[in-house]
Amino acid sequence: MSPRPNSLAARDAAFHLHGYTNAQKNEQEGGFVITRGKGIYVYDENGKEYLDGMAALWCSGLGFGEEPRLTQAAVKQMQELPFYHTFTQKVASVTVELAEKLVNLAPVPMSKAYFCNSGSEANDTVVKMIWYINNGLGRPQKKKIISRTKAYHGVTVAAASLTGLPGLHIDFDLPIAGILRTDCPHHYRFGNPGESEEDFATRCAESLEKLILREGPDTIAAMFAEPVMGAGGVIIPPKTYFAKIQAVLKKYDILLVADEVICGFGRTGNFWGSQTMGVTPDIMTMAKQLSAGVLPIAAVLVNQRVYEALRDNSAKNTVFGHGITYSGHPVCAAVALETLKIYEERKIVDRVRALEPVFLRELQRFREHPLVGECRGVGLVGAIELVKDKATRQSFDASLAVGPNLVRIAHNHGLIIRAVGDSLAFCPPMVISEAEVVDMFVRFEKSLADVA
Ligand code: PLP
Fold first, then answer.
1. Candidate of 147, 152, 265 to mutate for ligand 1, largest count of ligand atoms within 8 Å of Cβ
2. Contact predicate 36/42, CB 8 Å
3. Smallest CA separation from ligand 1 atom 12, residue
4. CA distance linking residue 379 with residue 151, whole number of Å
5. Centroid of ligand 1 to alpha carbon of 317 (angstroms)
6. Hey, whose CA ends up nearest to atom 7 of ligand 1?
7. 152 CB near ligand 1 (under 6 Å)
8. DSSP 270-297
């Protein structure tokens, strides 16, 4: 359906190139234009209301436009010091405050914060840090990095290489060399018939160890992992998975990088996904809900051991030759600081925990549906996996685009969700009420009924 002439959708088709979009389709149909938001709802250019079941893109934990304090924090900072940078020891006062706050909030002792503008940039920065410190430590061969099938770590060159989704590599000449792939810890999809979650977790750890031994432990520097995998399908690993994986990594002196870009800031029912999943990271990356999605800001936290290696090499080289103009941008930092205050004052973690049973109960309502293979969730993030054959767990042919079609049908019922692989993801603003959680799944039920 082509857009109305001169509508925003038509102008979008004419002038705007989208990410993660079929450009030809957008040229023909125009974009799905959102003009404003309120609470957990957003509105299109015709005024139609949608319950945003994805907090935009796993970001808008505080909803849309309901926090005048974030606006005030941004305005105040813009008036006092709209910009300063962090090169050659300079820094805005508010950036120092945010670094201190994040280091103090970390789930395990961390030493320093480095700021970026996006999750991708944060993960790329970590790859460079890892290479840099291992060169500095005189072990230039210890550079390979492990990530998992279905991982999502972003789209910049190193982050996209870490991402374990083939669609992000095709025709981009990715992944770069030195990236190793290990198993996705999704028991429903990859567990053997009759295999317990515990045994599956053991098998994942054994397979990781085999990979390390095959490649040579002294060639592998780090492993990246999302505590709960997001864009790969909201995959929640078995309870003992990370303990087993970390035992292997420790044995071979391999760093663990926790990508908290989706899981951080309460989403999984603890402040960090690492706490929910028993991860003890050496390095952490975060973005999205760090500023409730209001301004672009991301961060890397490194522990003392990593920091000391980086510090010593920067002293040897006279500089840590990496820096981003907008690293620690004061206006973004001010909004992030205020966001963290609001999370504390509103007891956002307690709120997610209180809503979790309702969210999971509503999610599990679809378990018996003939098109549904698995319903899974933790905190306020979850997914419903669609299958062609419930008994054999056979997936739909990707070319049928069942998930994306369901996403479009959901729009008719005033619901925004996201297709992630064979699954539909739910990640509503954390300020959603109990009644709104129920309403979100009622809207989904109507959408599913239109497919079946
Ligand atoms: N890491 C994870 C776990 C993510 O989900 C994302 C984005 O969705 C990223 C990294 C990349 O973040 P950005 O899109 O801000 O570059």
1. 152
2. yes
3. 119
4. 20
5. 31
6. 154
7. yes
8. SSSHHHHHT---SEEEE-GGGGTTSS--
Give all domains of the chain, ordered by start, each with its CATH number: 32-66+347-451 (3.90.1150.10), 70-345 (3.40.640.10)
What distance in Å separates the CA atoms of residue 42 and residue 39, rounded to the nearest whole number? 8
**What separation in Å is there between the alpha carbon of 381 and the centre of ligand 1?**
15
Q: How far is the CA of 90 from the centre of ligand 1 (A)?
A: 28
Q: Is the CB of 259 under 6 A from ligand 1?
A: yes
Q: Does ligand 1 lie within 6 Å of residue 235's CB atom?
A: no
Distance separating alpha carbons of residues 275 and 378, to the nearest angstrom: 12
CA–CA separation, 417 and 400 (whole Å)? 18
Question: Among residues 408, 406, 410, which one has the least CA distance to residue 439?
Answer: 410
Cis omega before residue 175 (within 30°)?
yes
Q: Which residues of 411-436 are buried (b: 16+ CB within 10 A; e: fewer)?
A: eebbbbbbbbbbbbbbbbbbbbeeeb
Going by C-alpha positions, the residue among 182, 186, 179, 188 that lies closest to residue 220 is 179
- Nearest residue by C-alpha to atom 1 in ligand 1: 153
Q: How far is the CA of 259 from the centre of ligand 1 (A)?
A: 9
Query: For the chain, what's the residue count?
Result: 452
Going by alpha carbons, the residue nearest to atom 13 of ligand 1 is 119
Residue-by-residue pLDDT tens, the chain, 452 positions: 789 999 999 999 999 999 999 999 999 999 999 999 999 999 998 999 999 999 999 999 999 987 799 999 999 999 999 999 999 999 999 999 999 999 999 999 999 999 999 999 999 999 999 999 999 999 999 999 999 999 999 999 999 999 999 999 999 999 999 999 999 999 999 999 999 999 999 999 999 999 999 999 999 999 999 999 999 999 999 999 999 999 999 999 999 999 999 999 999 999 999 999 999 999 999 999 999 999 999 999 999 999 999 999 999 999 999 999 999 999 999 999 999 999 999 999 999 999 999 999 999 999 999 999 999 999 999 999 999 999 999 999 888 889 999 999 999 999 999 999 999 999 999 999 999 999 999 999 999 999 86
Residue 86: both structure tokens together: 């962090």
ipTM for the complex? 0.99
321, HSE (Cβ side, Cα atoms, 13 Å) = 8
**pTM listed for this prediction:** 0.98
